[in-house]
Amino acid sequence: MALLQIAEPDAAAAPHQHRWALGIDLGTTHSLVAVVRNGAPECLLDEDGHTLLPSIVRYADDGAVLIGRRAAGQTGAIASVKRLMGRGYADIPNLASNTLELVEGDGMVRLHTAQGVKTPVEVSARILGALAERARARLGEDFVGAVITVPAYFDDAQRQATKDAARRAGIHVLRLLNEPTAAALAYGLDRAAEGVFAIYDLGGGTFDLSILRLSRGLFEVIATHGDSALGGDDFDHRIYCWMLEQARINPPSPADIARMMRAARAAKEALTQDESTRIALTLDSGEAIDLTLSRATFFEMTTLLLEKTLANVLAALRDANLAANDIDGVVLVGGATRMPHVRRAVAEFFGKEPLVDLDPDQVVALGAARQANILAGNRDANEDWLLLDVIPLSLGVEMLGGLAEKIIPRNATLPIARAQEFTTARDGQTAMSIHVVQGEREMVADCRSLARFELRGIPPMVAGAARIRVTFQVDADGLLTVLAREESTGVAANITVQPSYGLTDTEIADMLRASLAHAADDRDARALAEARLEGEQLLAATASAIAADGD
Amino acid sequence: MTDLPEQGHFALFALPVRFRLDEAALAAAWRTLQAQFHPDRAAHLSAVEQRRALQWATRINEAYNVLRDPLARAAHVLELNGVPLDLERNAAMPPEFLMQQMQWREALEEARTDAGALDALAREVAAAAQAQQDALARACDDQQDYAAAAQWLRRLHFTERLRAEIGRVRTAQDC
């Protein structure tokens, strides 16, 4: 019996005696690294005393590679590379503020730099490498591995790319950990909390809401929902649009847009402390902007964004089969949750004040460090706990007629495996293509394409006689492995994998929203596709019967 | 996963093979097993140990998912008692049951734009599903009449599909 494995799991690092293990928050705007020292997690500082490393890399003309603050604000600096991880060229939105020079082509998108073409994985590896260097310098010795955090909504391709970046930086990945889950670890372990917690994570570019049950050392993620195209940047953008309206200026140049966006961000941050703030700047065009923005106006213009986050909260509660007042505690994560009206809206929604006593910029790295410490084998009496996380998006395969057959439902506890039996549709068929997709919609065209597998060497049989068992295994990192075997004859099937990079952030977010909004369309589309398929099968069966007994 | 012992899902959690379930006992047993076998417990060990942990934890989750889902659990109990469900081949249903299904489907069509009517229908169907589950439990656990239990389970499948449909309509109404 042929048993074919497509992806080999990593070989483990050899056991060590003393085990430092890192928690790394690889963020869109900044990254940081933490460790557990003497039983308590702490963020490691760079030589200048900074915790945050700006996630910026610059490949200079002279061959030097600058990372972090030294790369910031210079031409050719690559920022926000996290948005490109695991994405194809066609997936990247054409942003006015996007200063990156992207290379057209298949596979993961690549970037033009002064030192040639680089992939987002290589750029991320530089950031991870800088954090690893910082850790070695601070600890005075090497570490065994790291837990690296990813947005809960990252799909398989984005997770795989993150793991590849760590491998390239020479870091052994102990685990990929979802960011909101990491935050829950940091809080839960600090307070020895019990009960059901909601983690509201509004970062620079993404929003995640996770619901966890904490009981006797077990952190069980019950549901996660999110929008990977909604974050603090959208609040800046609302202020920018308001400035355009109020100042009545001509369409600004790219440089002026960047200047106005910086002013918008500064105004947003000022309104965290102050009731109103003045926005004054002179543009390249000679036009002057001088406006006063009040908290009330800012809150009003961003109400819709807040409501979008709360719609996700509702959806997660529904998945978890819970009501808002079942939640025992709410944790705020991400710099954008510093905005007072975000805090107020969350407090009102849940009817309780959110927990904010850990620095929202650091909480993810601190939680990751605790997980890393445990995974490295540094378990002591008061650190006996376990985390059970879930898969954020359903996994399925394409069936005849373009239907997506769900094989592993979203929010299933990891690790998980499901087997599905496939058969041939036509007499004498010797090959079969299996298309794996991720998403909630009923039609394949509306889901994200993950990979295509070719099964070859199926012995010719009548339609429906071959039995091909395909097992989909999702491990604790949320990564997929596929095993396939032909059961009726034991004949080997050859498999080739073509990972596909398909979708944008917005599309992933839209997939879930759309799966709710288009429930009726989907049902009709499914009914139509099924009826069509039934008709075709009937035709094929009739034709084959006529061929056999035609006279 | 050939090195795993072939035991029923109930045996894994030391629970009796029956449809009625002590959900708290199942959840507690599941947590205890995961605490022991989850891959995180083996992350610092050899590749072989890690693979074993992955297989065990997967097996434990699979069993847990079957047992906590009433339909899957009932099918498993019947299978262990030699009565495979075989939904495709045993589609015959009493006419009055089919009539009831048709009435519900019609009511659902009418309730698409009427949240109040949808709630009423949802309550009615939920009550019917509960009654079918109770009948299934009696046939299965009290009378050991697995053929009758299979009949109730087939009905329950119809009813649960309708409930899922009602849930989708409700979600669409909320949006």
Topology:
The complex is a heterodimer of chains A (551) and B (175).
Chain A: E1 4-5, E2 21-25, E3 30-37, E4 40-43, E5 53-54, E6 56-59, E7 65-67, E8 77-79, E9 102-103, E10 110-113, E11 116-118, H1 120-139, E12 145-150, H2 156-168, E13 173-178, H3 179-191, E14 195-202, E15 207-215, E16 218-227, H4 232-247, H5 254-270, E17 276-282, E18 288-294, H6 295-301, H7 303-320, E19 329-333, H8 340-350, H9 363-375, E20 386-388, E21 395-399, E22 403-408, E23 416-422, E24 432-438, E25 448-456, E26 468-474, E27 480-486, E28 494-499, H10 505-517, H11 519-549
Parallel strand pairs in A: 2-12, 12-13, 14-19, 16-20
Antiparallel strand pairs in A: 1-27, 2-3, 3-4, 3-5, 6-7, 6-8, 9-10, 10-11, 14-15, 15-16, 17-18, 21-22, 21-24, 23-26, 24-25, 25-28, 26-27
Chain B: H1 9-12, H2 23-37, H3 47-68, H4 70-80, H5 95-111, H6 115-142, H7 146-174
Walk me through this protein's architecture.
The complex is a heterodimer of chains A (551) and B (175). By secondary structure, chain A is an alpha+beta fold. Chain A folds into 2 domains: 297 residues, ATPase, nucleotide binding domain (Nucleotidyltransferase, domain 5, 2-Layer Sandwich); 148 residues, Substrate Binding Domain Of DNAk, Chain A, domain 1 (Sandwich). Chain A contains 11 helices and 28 strands. In chain A, strands 2, 3, 4, 5, 12 and 13 form a 6-stranded mixed beta sheet that branches. In chain A, strands 19-14-15-16-20 form a 5-stranded mixed beta sheet, sandwiched between helices. Chain A has a 5-stranded antiparallel beta sheet with strand order 22-21-24-25-28. In chain A, a hairpin with a 5-residue loop joins strand 6 and strand 7. In chain A, helix 1 crosses helix 2, helix 3 packs across helix 9 and helix 4 packs across helix 5. The longest helix of chain A has 31 residues. The radius of gyration of chain A is 25 Å and the shape is globular. The two termini of chain A are 40 Å apart. The N terminus of chain A is likely disordered. Chain B is mainly α and 175 residues long. The N and C termini of chain B lie far apart (43 Å). The N terminus of chain B is likely disordered. Helices cover 72% and strands 0% of the residues of chain B. Chain B has 2 domains: 60 residues, DnaJ domain (Helix Hairpins); 80 residues, HscB, C-terminal domain (Monooxygenase, Up-down Bundle), CATH 1.20.1280. Chain B has 7 helices and no strands.
